[in-house]
From TrEMBL:
Record has Zinc as a keyword: no
Pfam entry (one): HisG_C
Reported regulation of activity: Feedback inhibited by histidine.
Reaction equations catalysed: 1-(5-phospho-beta-D-ribosyl)-ATP + diphosphate = 5-phospho-alpha-D-ribose 1-diphosphate + ATP
This protein's name: ATP phosphoribosyltransferase
Cofactor(s) for this UniProt protein: Mg(2+)
Length: 282
């Protein structure tokens, strides 16, 4: 199985780190290398431009891919399916116009010019409005086009809005919310290896923000401990050699650990151990 991943840019390192945490880390992934093996002999990584990855999957050069939802939508391919939101690389595609201009709503752009690196998404967006602007495709520095009279507005990606503010542009509307997704060709929908990769990646996401808590507690205070540590479906309770004592294990949201430790000690818990969880498979 071949899985296409970004070869550079802001999505490259987080994607490789996620694969590594999921147990399918890349081996010998040197710079400028097109392919790389993983620890799984049946899985190969294919490096490609983030914008090209949907086409690689659609054409069969790769069975699955990891890239932004915005890139998948812009490609227009219809033979791939999203499998999993990987919850990083979050950004927004927005319609923006000069702060001191007259554009305050999409309808104000009827007959105007809109510059963008995402013409497919932009045309689809305006098809749902009353405006019919001319869409001009540019390949960079989109935010400058209104100031050199190339466009009346732009559709561009923003994460924090800083670049827009620096260029005296204001957000008129949100066009698309995006994050990085795992997707695959529709022909491999039931492929066991694709499902295995999806499960591995999901296990990392499900473990995020959770901690594994282990402790000893008096058996007669077990109900009090359970009230503090409901866990996933309830804590696991184990007998130990010491009479009148049980071991309790539970998965706890990280944000609750600080207060939980104090409450556990108050009901007689001891030997409390808190560890990170790398992967969590339901």
């Amino acid at each position: 199985m071949r899985i296409a991943v970004p070869n550079k840019g802001r999505l490259h390192d987080p994607t490789l780190a996620l694969l590594d945490r999921a147990g399918i880390g890349v081996e010998d992934g040197a710079d400028r290398q097109l392919y790389a093996d993983t620890v799984d002999p049946a899985l190969t990584v294919l490096y490609a431009r983030a914008a090209d990855i949907p086409e690689y999957v659609a054409d069969g050069a790769a069975d699955a891919g990891i890239t932004g939802h915005d890139q998948l939508r812009e490609s227009g391919v219809d033979c791939v399916e999203e499998r999993l939101d990987l919850n990083y690389g979050s950004c927004r595609l927005v319609l923006a116009a000069p702060e001191d201009g007259d554009v305050t709503a999409p309808a104000d752009l009827d007959g105007a010019t809109v510059a963008t690196e995402f013409p497919t998404i932009t045309r689809a967006y305006f098809a749902d409005t009353t405006a019919t602007p001319e869409i001009v495709e540019v390949t960079g520095a989109t935010e400058l086009t209104p100031h050199v009279e190339m466009a009346d507005a732009i559709v561009d990606i923003t994460s924090t809005g800083t670049t827009l503010r620096v260029n005296r542009l204001q957000v008129v509307d949100e066009v698309l919310s995006s994050s990085v997704r795992l997707f695959a060709h529709e022909d491999v929908h039931d492929d066991p290896k694709v499902q295995q990769v999806e499960t591995a990646l999901r296990s990392v996401l499900d473990a995020h923000g959770k901690r594994y808590v282990m402790l000893n507690a008096p058996a007669d205070r077990l109900d009090d401990v359970k009230a503090v540590l409901p866990g996933l479906g309830g804590p696991t309770v184990l007998d130990v050699d010491e009479p009148g004592t049980v071991a309790v294990h539970a998965v706890v949201p990280e944000r609750d650990v600080f207060e939980a430790i104090s409450e556990l000690k108050a009901v007689g818990a001891s030997g409390i151990l808190v560890t990170e969880i790398e992967r969590l498979v339901d």
